[in-house]
Amino acid sequence: MLEQGLGDNQTVTITGYGSNGEGVARLDDGRVVFVRNAARGDVLQIKLTKTGARSARAEITGIITPSPYRIEPDCPHYPECGGCDFRHVTYEEELEAKLNRVNDAMRRIGGLDIHAEQILSTGQTEEYRNKAVFHSDGKSLGFYRSGSHDIVPIDRCLLLKEDINAAIKTLPPVSHKEETTLRSGLNGLAEPFEEELDGLRFMIQGFFQVNKGAALLLYKKVREYAGLSKTETLIDLYCGVGAMTLFAGRNAGRALGVEQNAEAVIAARENALRNGFPHIEFINADAAAWEAGSCNPDCVIVDPPRNGLSTGVVSKILELAPKRIVYASCDPATLARDLKALHGYEVNEICAVDMFPRTANVECCCLLKQVTKRMPLQDSYRYQQLT
Predict the structure, then answer these.
(1) Domain boundary residue among 188, 204, 221?
(2) Long-range contacts made by residues 159-163, C-beta under 8 angstroms, separation at least 24?
(3) Which residues of the chain register pLDDT less than 70?
């Protein structure tokens, strides 16, 4: 069978979605092909734009039979702007795609027999983002074009809170390659800003979830999984400004947040004080290098960056040997990898959260429980880096 090359046309049927939201199909030669702006069930005429030994990429040249899940995009910048991935399909189809992505990662990367039964969603697909980073080409502000650093000028984004959209037209011009960041909270457009969740008020200096409503769903699930009592101790190894630490740790006898960013720790301590939680403390330290001393946590929470846990943090968790681990993740692939590394623990529950509607990104949260005594650290795990 001949292998198709660049520019070759072919008819394909889209059977699912890749991790970046592209439609997935099989070429005549057996290779997987990824097609942006495709929907499951589409029968398409495509042209190959990039080829490899095992996979290819293509663009749509014609829709022969549209998917029943396909809809007309409601944004004039889509799909030119790279901010959204799923504006061409129903929201129900998007949620199904994200749930499948989580479960595929658990099975294929983690080798785990665990299945997320639900994806939590607020149902709000517009005006949910409390943060926007605008890029400049020296003439106008906007977002990056999909797959490049070219600027797509934006006068209004459907994902952004209305006060951010209102401010776009008033922003002064900036130099080429500079960024302009806007954040919206209880105190309006400000940096740092303030936010409230479930009766708790936070000063945000640094990272905070961009979707307040979905963050509440995630934090409630973290608190449920942590299951803390007044006799137990919690450690949060990526605590940031302490929002998740306070949210889950208010039910504990003691809670400790560990954070490398000194400014975030100052904000976290202020947040504990303003919310009246003297039993919650924060220290400025690297999660992997921190000396735990005699601290014996019942539960450890981790909410790492997209690249997941470092080998040092995996080692630190195994050293702490908590009864329970609650892992919140913004990347199912690195989550699945890390779950394999946490020997002596098994995944008891997992769910997905739609933190970023109309994009391909999906948040996960899982509960791990200790099933065996900790082995010597040098033999306890083999860390496998994703390539």
Answers:
(1) 188
(2) 159/83, 159/84, 159/126, 159/127, 159/128, 159/129, 159/357, 159/358, 160/127, 160/129, 160/132, 161/127, 161/128, 161/129, 161/130, 162/127, 163/188, 163/189
(3) 1-7, 173, 372-387
